[in-house]
Amino acid sequence: MDILSRCLLAASRPISPKSQVKFLALGYVRVSQVCFFLFAAASLFYGTVQAHAQQRVVLVMDVQNYTKVRPSAIGAQRGDIIAQAFKDRGFTVIQSTNPTNAEARATLGDFSVKVGSADLALAVLLGHGLTSNGQTFFLPANAEIDRATDLMSRSLSITNIANIVGHAKVGGVFFLMTNPGFEPSIADTDKNPAIDGDLNRNVVSAFSTSSRVPLSRIDALAADSADALAKVLKDSSVTFDQAVKAASGGGLGLVVGAVPDLALNVPHQTIAVASPDGTNAAAPSSELIAERQAREAAEKRARDEKANAEKARAEAEQSKSEARQIAEQAMAKLNEEEARLNAMEKEHQKLMGNTQPSMAASPSMKADEESRIAAIEKDHRSLMAKTQPMEGQAGMNARDTLSMDAQLGPRQRMLIQQRLAELGLYSGKMDSLFGPLTREAIMGYQRAHGDPITGYLTPEEYKDLSVAATNMKQQAQP
What is the torsion angle, in degrees rounded to the nearest 10, for the CA atoms of residue 319, residue 322, residue 324 and residue 330? Predict the structure, then answer.
């Protein structure tokens, strides 16, 4: 008989005052026990529901640097951005960057442990992919694939990952897939994604590419899909359908499975519920809040430092490329100026040969010819004034070489040949033309003095050569 029936029965018959007190005390105790039990059950149920609503987990695995194939075009920085976007939406994030095959499998094992009790489990993969026998595989950083059968043991099957996320209430796999570019191509493999097997109906698999996407567009579309996914996750009202569309290249990629009507918005903050002992079990402590804030600040600093390092590396590569271009331009200008000098010297030699007899007979013709020779030498000196300044060490070396060769006239070049001959280094004609024999003689002089062997005299070497020839003459005199 329940408490209400006992009360009615007691009211219908007379009882003694002592019995009334005893009965009321018994009823009060029973009612208090029932109320306490109901309150405790409600508190436990409410707290369980609130905690369960927070169980959303995502695996972000990105590979940029491969040891056996070319790097992925997506870049690890996009993986960091996507991981942070999920973290901002209240997800528990497990991230692995450039993992080896063993590390990737270990991370996947840690992820599978958290999936079983989750409402929503997602796996986001960024990197190279390859398909064989109806399955697409994600390649870890050290993947060494010689034949199609190597994919089973040296990479991760997307079908297996889809089965893992299927243990949650709702699961999804987003593969932002780039082309590894194996040369030669591996037999029985394909660039087009595929997924087979009996998948759970609660799982959606989205690929950034499909058979409709040409090979030349696979990498660019994967990068665009990563940027689109990171952007859509910043929307406070983002849905699962919007995330799938972004990850699948705006609809160009392959999507397998039915997309549920599910919001990915930030979960509501848990309301504190008083437990039976009067404590506030759901409210986080100030120590936990401080620890979380410190961890988030450290992660942000790490991301910023990584981004700055990548920026500095890119700038260094650009500076190196620009320096190489300056050096190539300097050498091209040097060759051009040398060709012009040789042409002018040949013209001078031709004039000297044609006018030699007449100069002996006519002093006026000799004076005219000397004026023409002086004009040619002046043209030699003006070549340096027309040379544009060049930056960098390569430009400085090119200017030194041009300044030496361009400022020497035919008479000075013949004098250099004479001095090289006196030193026993030159055995050619004294023709003022710096051909192969003259260059070899200059290289011999540079080799003997421990200077850089270029075949072109610097101003210092020209001066030292003059002193060396003079000393040799003095030693030869009795």
Answer: -140
- Kindly tell me if the per-residue pLDDT of 365 is higher than 70: no
Percent of the chain's residues with pLDDT above 90? 38
- Give one word for 443, left, alpha or beta, with left for phi > 0 and alpha for psi -120 to 50: alpha
Q: Could you tell me the two tokens for 257?
A: 């499975």
Share of the chain above pLDDT 70, in %: 67
Span 391-432, pLDDT tens digits: 444 444 544 555 566 677 888 888 889 989 998 999 998 988
133 forms beta bridges with none
Span between the terminal Cα atoms of the chain, in Å: 147
The residue ranges of every structural domain in the chain are 3-47, 55-266, 321-476
Hey, which CATH number is domain 55-266, 2.170.120.40, 3.40.50.10490, 3.20.20.150, 3.40.50.1460? 3.40.50.1460
What angle is formed at CA 69 by the lines to CA 64 and CA 74, rounded to 5 degrees?
A: 25
In degrees, rounded to 5, the angle at the alpha carbon of residue 88 between the alpha carbons of residues 87 and 91 is 40
3 state DSSP class of 178: strand
Confidence of residue 53 (pLDDT cuts 50, 70, 90): very low
How far apart CA 43 and CA 39 sit, in angstroms, is 6
